[in-house]
Amino acid sequence: MSKPHAILIGAGFTGCATAYDLALRGFDVTVLERGDLAAGTSGRTHGLLHSGARYCVTDQESAVECIDESRILARIAAQCIEFNGGLFIALDDSDLAFVDRFVEGAQTCHIPIEQISPRKALEMEPAINPGVLDAYWVPDGTFDPLRLALAFAASAKASGAVFKLYCQVEAMLADGQGNLNGVRYWDRTTGQHHELRGDIVVSATGAWAGELAELAGAHVPVRPTPGVMVAFASRFVERAINRLNKPGDGDIVLPQRRMVVVGTTSFEAEDVDYIPVSEEQVAEMVKRGADLIPALATAPQRGAYMASRPLVGSGTQARSIARTFKCFDHKESDGIDGFVTITGGKATTCRAMAEATADMVCRKLGVSAACQTRERPLRSYREFYRAGEGARA
Amino acid sequence: MTAEVWTVTFRVFRRKGAEAPHYDFFRLEVSPDEYVLDAIERIWAFHDRSLVYRYACHHATCGACGMRVNSVEKLTCITTIRSVARDGGEVTVEPLRNFPVISDLTVDMGDLYRSMEAVHYPAVSPVAAAPLPTIPAKDGISPGGPLREEPDAHRLNDCIECGLCVSACPIATTTAGYLGPAVLAAIQFQGISGKPALAGLADCEDGVWRCHSAYECTAVCPSLVDPGWRIMDLRKQAIGRRFRRLFGRGETA
Ligand SMILES: Cc1cc2nc3c(=O)[nH]c(=O)nc-3n(C[C@H](O)[C@H](O)[C@H](O)COP(=O)(O)OP(=O)(O)OC[C@H]3O[C@@H](n4cnc5c(N)ncnc54)[C@H](O)[C@@H]3O)c2cc1C
Ligand code: SF4
To answer: How many CA atoms lie within 13 A of A71 on its CB side?
Structure first.
């Protein structure tokens, strides 16, 4: 029997990791991405390899996913991760009142944390607010977004996956029974339109998952929830600095290369194709960031940018929606076979999202093959660009 | 940022498949403090969905959005419109030189990535091996922060493989075999002492000796790698190594 062919839409973290997982399980995989690799939310993510500590009180399911997956990524994707840990710092009474729940939550979610005296914290990170009242070390890290996506994609390619960049899916193709068996796409580098047939269509389009589902006449309750980030031109800290409280705006400062990046906010958007960065949001980030690292109030900026979370659900408070992911089998939700959507989640959990999606695809197609992505290190991200095939292959 | 609004015409290089290249013009209302990439993104979002361009992080950590803006290599995500245009003026945006064009503003970076891999340039290093030297502030980039040397801490290295230096290099334009500034800088970063393969690549005609010290690379590098200085340093390393070999002290001396 010939290999089953999976058509994957979207080459963010989720699409690249799913291509890798399916290719290892013996699928022929074609990835269609309308931009370049990581052109959606993934490229512009804040870049925190989450230990889960941020969610250990408010969203323990996410927290457990994060600690488990961050350990795996630190092992398989060390090539593009600064794994220096992080500090949660308490700066006022409200923060101090949160400490007990934080410590208990971390324990429940098996996240190893360690209390650090304010004096020691300032020794470790002299640039943080000298008014620090309490501090905890957590196993956070920073990743390079493009290179993390490239590493998964390079590994997928090494197992035979084909990436077609700048190819935008514009229609879903169905058989006589209304089940999907392919897509039509527009190759933006040539202007030509093509049809591609496959045994299963997997949409890994993040904040765009609702739009793609509509093309098939299906529904995905994804809420695009953008946030702003501001990068500064000096590396003030070695570790991720988090406010020790419930997740809020501008409460994380991450070191990255020679920079630090402050993030983020959370609001709702209709059109995710272009979300302007507002002056007010940038000013707010500088102000909140300066609570954690006072020098940010006057430090030169390196850039300000926006990305849109794919939050799943229909609650009212964006920050309170679970950050866990969801796989949709559209046969069950919409009566359309041959079509699966994976959305939600975080960069940190992209491998687990891929595993769950590949499990679902295997179940649907009656393929029995186990996930193999937990242990082996990813290929060098640079292997995505192989000799003689150009960046599009 | 300000509430200032400028009208700027973007003259954009276009090429699809085997068609002959041409330029398209897009008149946009912009804030002068927006970045060139924001304008390109709006051209795609609201004027022409066929525009092909590459980007990812939007804060100078990924190196994907290098282009020629008014004939100068820029990382468009951190280049303000104010720095390259004036109200009522025109800005030309073209793909990088010395790389094959895939379409419009996107080039194939494969050669650079493969060469960086061949010289084993690490993406992440211990900060002890990649300290933040005090280099005079340039282009709004201040010297490194108050970083202490923590041997256990790691950081992502400076070179973001953006290819701006390769595009700006007058030698890379005329000599296909030249290793080029980014790759030579990557060799210098690691040092050639005790590394005969790297030494062989650097100390040859298409290595350090091909460079004409134009320093265009250093002028355009958005990440303070200073490839021009590194190539000169690598020449010293190469000469030192030759001397040591002459006096029989071998590779590791
Ligand atoms: C502000 C912000 C900060 C964040 N910070 C962190 C963090 O610090 N740590 C962390 O772990 N996570 C973080 N996240 C979450 C994380 O970035 C996302 O969950 C993740 O990037 C989603 O990846 P994805 O592959 O599912 O979606 P995307 O990366 O959005 O990928 C979807 C892809 O589909 C493509 N596409 C869309 N339509 C089509 C079409 N018609 N045809 C073909 N392709 C199409 C898009 O171009 C895109 O590339 C953050 C998110 C935001 C918004
Ligand atoms: S040396 Fe500088 S200009 Fe050249 S590729 Fe590296 S970061 Fe870009």
So the answer is: 10
Q: Give the Å distance between the CA of A207 and the centre of ligand 1.
A: 7
For residues B102 and B107, what is the distance between their CA atoms, to the nearest angstrom?
5
Low-confidence residues of chain A, pLDDT below 70?
1, 314-323, 388-393
ipTM: 0.93
Q: Is B225 in the pocket of ligand 2 (CB under 6 A)?
A: yes
pLDDT digits (tens, 9 = 90+) for A79-104: 999 999 999 999 999 999 999 999 99
Interval B166-194: pLDDT, tens: 999 999 988 889 999 999 999 999 999 99
Contact B145 A146 (CB under 8 A): no
- Rounded to the nearest angstrom, the distance between the alpha carbon of B10 and the centre of ligand 1 is 29
DSSP output for A352-363? HHHHHHHHHHHH
> What is the percentage of chain B residues whose pLDDT exceeds 90?
79
Q: Structural domains in chain A?
A: 5-42+146-221+323-383 (3.50.50.60), 48-143+223-312 (3.30.9.10)
Question: Would you call B110 and A44 a contact, using CB atoms and an 8 Å cutoff?
Answer: no
The pLDDT of residue B139 is above 60: no
Ligand 1 pocket, residue A341 CB under 6 Å: no
Among candidate residues A236, A285, A235, the one with its CA nearest the CA of residue A262: A285
A34 Cβ below 6 A of ligand 1: yes
Measured CA to CA in angstroms, residue B147 lies from A115, A118, B45 at distances of: 23, 19, 40
Cα angle at A135 between A132 and A138, to 5 degrees? 145
